[in-house]
């Protein structure tokens, strides 16, 4: 797959899709073959070169060293002193897990955080993940991490035979969308055991459109 093929598919997608009164998301769909995702799940994070045009909500579990910085950067900060309040109200944890896209944790309180929030966040796939850099030291730069999380997407196929992920919005330029699409495609090939041999076809779609095949 090359940039010219992606541009052709994007052009076709824009031409064939009815305009809506909102900016639709652009999805990349990678159909898989010759891989059993039940026994060998595909599950990884990718960082896009360009922002995907959709704001993410970030919550953070922080010690006193990062609390002030966290309140400037994150949408919600939960200090160690507040853990007991949440532990007494599991419904509050569930609501929080559904309301935020990413969770950051200061490494020095990770154990206590996991004991209070781990069960529910783990079930939702929302535990602070070292693979995204979301488990941080007390001297971390949370602004840089927030910027990275704004461009981070998760690709997962545990039973399905395809990967589908938002790579941008239709009001983004073709150049920025192509850059994001090519980056995710490259990272996906790296993650698949047999690389190109595990890809059946690649498609693009908007929120309200039918898929268009990249070829």
Describe the structure.
With 215 residues, the chain is α/β, with parallel strands linked by helices. The chain folds into two domains: 3-52 and 152-213, Ribulose 1,5 Bisphosphate Carboxylase/Oxygenase (2-Layer Sandwich); 58-150, Rossmann fold (3-Layer(aba) Sandwich). Helices cover 37% and strands 25% of the residues. It has helices spanning 3-16, 64-73, 83-87, 90-99, 110-123, 142-150, 174-191; strands at residues 25-32, 42-47, 58-62, 76-79, 102-106, 135-136, 152-157, 162-169, 199-206, 212-213. The strands form three sheets. A four-stranded antiparallel beta sheet has the order 8-1-9-10, with helices on one face. Helix 1 packs across helix 7. The longest helix has 18 residues, at 174-191. The protein starts with a helix and ends with a strand. The model has no long low-confidence stretch (mean pLDDT 94).
């Amino acid at each position: 797959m090359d940039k010219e093929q992606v541009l052709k598919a994007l052009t076709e997608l824009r031409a064939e899709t009815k305009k809506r009164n909102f900016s639709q998301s652009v999805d990349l769909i990678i159909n898989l073959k010759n891989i059993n995702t039940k026994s060998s799940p595909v599950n990884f994070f990718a960082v896009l070169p360009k922002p995907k045009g959709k704001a993410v909500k970030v919550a953070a579990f922080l010690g006193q060293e990062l609390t002030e910085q966290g309140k400037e950067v994150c949408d919600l900060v939960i200090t160690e002193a507040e853990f007991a309040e949440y532990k007494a109200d599991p419904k509050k944890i569930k609501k929080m897990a559904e309301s935020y896209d990413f969770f950051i944790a200061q490494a020095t309180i990770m154990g206590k955080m996991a004991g209070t929030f781990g069960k529910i966040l783990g079930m939702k796939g929302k535990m602070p993940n070292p693979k995204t850099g979301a488990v941080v030291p007390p001297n971390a730069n949370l602004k840089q991490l927030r910027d990275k999380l704004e461009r981070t997407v998760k690709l997962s196929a545990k039973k399905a035979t395809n990967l589908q992920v938002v790579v941008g919005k239709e009001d983004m330029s073709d150049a920025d969308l192509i850059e994001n699409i090519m980056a995710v495609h490259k990272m996906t090939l790296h993650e698949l055991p047999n690389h190109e041999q595990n890809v059946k076809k690649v498609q693009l779609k908007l929120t309200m459109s039918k898929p268009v095949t990249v070829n």
